[in-house]
Request: fold
Amino acid sequence: MNCDHDHDLPAPRRRDALKLLSCGFGFLALRSLLAQSAMAQQPLASPLDPKAPHFPARAKRVIFLSMAGAPSHVDTFDYKPELTAHDGQTVSGKYRAGAVLMASPWKFAQHGKGGLWISELFPELAKRADRLCLLRGMATDVPAHPQATLMQHTGSFQFVRPSLGAWTLYGLGTMNQNLPGFVTINPAQQGGAQNYGSGFLPATYQGLRIGSGRGQARGKRGAQEEAVADIKNDRLSTEAQRKQLDLLQTLNREHMHAKHESDEVEGVIESFELAFRMQAELPALLDLSKEKPATLEAYGIGADETDGFGRQCLMARHLAESGVRFIEISHGGWDQHRNLRTDLPRQCKEVDRPIAALLDDLEQRGLLKDTLVIWGGEFGRTPYAQNGDGRDHNHKGFTTWMAGGGVKGGFSYGATDENGIEAVEGKMTIQDWHATILHLLGLDHERLTFNYAGRDFRLTNVSGEVAKDILA
Reply:
């Protein structure tokens, strides 16, 4: 049976055919317009969204306690009984001719189950010795403050490079979209904004500076509280700001899709949105007025010597607890070329109690196990005297320490020679130090790269080895 009856249908008229075709074109145009509208209204994936690490991480966040000016390792965490025996002797060959060795004026004792040797200048930290992992074989490239500070923060003193905090944020994103993922409080003056900059990484990964840094030394009060006044809007309500921002973001997205320029415009969109969200959450985190008196006392807030740095430490705990990925706080004034016997005890007293309280607070809240706390300066000091009662710069050997975040507690790694002049065992360069920090965060320093100027760059450049012996 032949069921094909198409020959019985009348041929369509020319007018009807054109009408059908025009409707089709209209629907195609409408579909395109609806798609563009949907794309304009659809929120973009934020570059700060949480990202999976390369492998299971031991730490989720970092608190970096930066001691600007270079603390003397041989007077704090690097016990040298031989230096005491050699007190007054001249140094042969390794440093300037005629340099006279000077024993530490302070006593050392063993503390904790690990028996760590710690100076009497840190009585409170000594009680927390079993949380500390001392890195006594540190070394860096140059003995000048600006260059060594840049080296410590960016891995290079010769070129503008992204900071450690920026690389961390690039690799992992943030855990709270209402807050910046990287915050620096009272940043060090040496090295400037590069210490918390994003370099060639997108600008959204740079750190938010809180405070000017002028109040680093001697715990000056209030320096960090000048901080975020500029995120407030005295002329517009929150609702009006939101409407204004929505209009601006619609225009930004239309421009982005029309011009196919995503990186720069997306960075602008993200910065505006983050600033708006920060208004509601960040000021409250920096407000310490609602803390219990016992907490304020524990951090030394209210006491002349410890108030400034104690506030920074408590703010750091607030930020860490709220999901900020990388927090740096600074304390300056450690450059003791003279007056060592009077200035170093004061500096240590200003930070000892606040840091001990921070470690206690993090542990009590269950945060220390996945928070990597780092302490250290840009280099160390010479074991020989300068100006009779001071020590010169020493980049060949010094001490930093870590706590929490997957490192062994009550543990000492590396060593300097008998007088503390240079690292001779377990030597850790800044590239090794950076590689180890990234490893604890679940990031492979060789795989965390960014293509710039035709090549893949990384924080550790072309070197760096993880100090696996310190991993818990």
The chain has a mean pLDDT of 87. The chain is about 35% helix and 15% strand. The two ends are 84 Å apart (CA to CA).
